[in-house]
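Narrative of accomplishments. A recurring question from our advisory board has been how the design workflow behaves on a single, concrete structure rather than in aggregate. To address it, we present the structure tokens for one chain from the evaluation set, followed by the sequence designed for it. No filtering or post-editing was applied between the two.
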């Protein structure tokens, strides 16, 4: 799971996932946005996720845990120091998340993923080369599990859910992992 959502619904989904054995890995957006530290921060995020995945755990990478997460203001302040406005910051963070997700999919061969956050979903889908989606299973209104058609042979057929932050029950990520509505 790659989450760029700051919604309380997604925060509850992250909490549920972690309580149920997922590795919760916070992305350090301040470091990721910094041109001097971004590459190292990305490598650390990928390495941490690969380590958790290698032990058989599912992973939730996230930028914020709810709307009051101090990481939001820290990211905004760091972006302003770089001359980035809110729209450019959100786009850049989501693009980085898409790059991290693509690396993880390429390096592990995983064939199912979820992206949480409306803007994050759109930018990540572009980084994954998604050009079309076919609905496979309705999981939550507006956020089905889909099969992706991509411009890359290795990712073509990827099963993915792209969800808005306010969508889904607490066990949404587990529903995607299992490919069924769990609750």
């Amino acid at each position: 799971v790659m989450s760029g959502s700051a919604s309380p619904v997604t925060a509850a989904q992250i909490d549920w996932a972690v309580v149920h054995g997922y590795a919760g890995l916070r992305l350090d957006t301040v470091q990721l946005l910094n041109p001097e530290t971004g590459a190292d921060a990305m490598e650390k995020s990928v390495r941490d996720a690969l380590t958790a995945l290698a032990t058989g755990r599912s992973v939730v990478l996230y930028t914020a845990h709810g709307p009051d997460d101090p990481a939001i203001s820290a990211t905004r302040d760091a972006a302003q120091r770089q001359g980035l406005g809110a729209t450019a910051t959100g786009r850049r963070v989501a693009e980085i998340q898409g790059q991290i997700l693509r690396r993880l999919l390429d390096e592990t061969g995983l064939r199912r993923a979820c992206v949480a956050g409306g803007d994050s979903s759109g930018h990540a889908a572009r980084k994954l080369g998604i050009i079309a989606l076919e609905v496979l299973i309705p999981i939550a209104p507006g956020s089905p599990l889909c099969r992706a058609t991509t411009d890359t042979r290795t990712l073509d057929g990827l099963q993915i859910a792209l969800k808005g932050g306010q969508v889904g029950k607490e066990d949404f990520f587990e529903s995607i992992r299992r490919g069924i509505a769990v609750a």
